[in-house]
Specification:
Length: 161
Amino acid sequence: MRQSTSRKFQYQQGAALVVGLLLLLVLTLLAVSGMNSASLEFVMAGNEQYRSNAFQAAEAGIEQTILQGAFNPGSPVQTLTGNPTATDTWTATVTPQLGGIPLAAIWGNSWNSFSTYHFEISSTGTSVRSANAVNLQGIAVISPWDPTVQPDPNLATNLLQ
């Protein structure tokens, strides 16, 4: 009986071993590919978080600039900076528009009541990994009427009354 069993094994070529090794190779490649994909997605999620932090820091810069009320039409550019001890920082600049010249109020009954000064706030937020976000905000400051602002001569005279 022993001889007949050994003769059967004599004719086998080891195909099951080769097929098994090929399947293990394919599974290993799929596992490595999945790990690379997962680690790439992890880095992408982190980068998105840092970009969001930079955006929020830039928004905080605009908010703090508005709260400080640093709107002086006589000053060319004013720069404000955020807390340097924070992990995310911001720097905001306030630039008067139209050369700091006031615009007359909207035409109507209150023509001689007020003028408006226009400013632009540019805030740059920076997060821990140097992700940057730049946000712009326009501001119109209403102030008492400025006698140096003349009515627009191109408008009909009945609008000025």
